[in-house]
Amino acid sequence: MPAAGRVMMSAIFLLSGVGKLAAPAATLAMIKAAGLPLPEVSYAAAAFVEVAGGLLLVAGYRTRIVALVLAAFSLATAVTFHTAFADQNQMIHFLKNVAMAGGLLQIAAFGAGSLSLDARRGRV
């Protein structure tokens, strides 16, 4: 079960990260519109966190640390891009990010499970 949960949680990060890599101009425009400093650095960091974090989560490698990083990323994304609560879609995205962070905190608390690189290394 933990492996299935890790794969399901990683899907959104992998798809979003690959989407950022496939459409950098659109992503940079969104980052600039949010007023984040150093948009190119923010773009590279976000794409890296999503792709690398998603892959590491699937593999179950350094899972607790990766889950904490992805939880923090999810909350940062929620408060940066999804606080226009008058727009129901944005409120749903905000709550989705908060829920993802909650699931990731569960992974951080309970570890990767037996089907993981962490288990092979004796670090479940």
From TrEMBL:
Pfam families: DoxX. It is a multi-pass membrane protein. InterPro entries: DoxX, DoxX-like_oxidoreductase. It comes from the Bacteria. It is found in: Cell membrane. Its main location: membrane. The chain crosses the membrane at residues 41-58, 65-86, 98-117. Keywords: Cell membrane, Membrane, Transmembrane, Transmembrane helix. Belongs to the DoxX family. This is DoxX family protein. It comes from Methylobacterium komagatae.
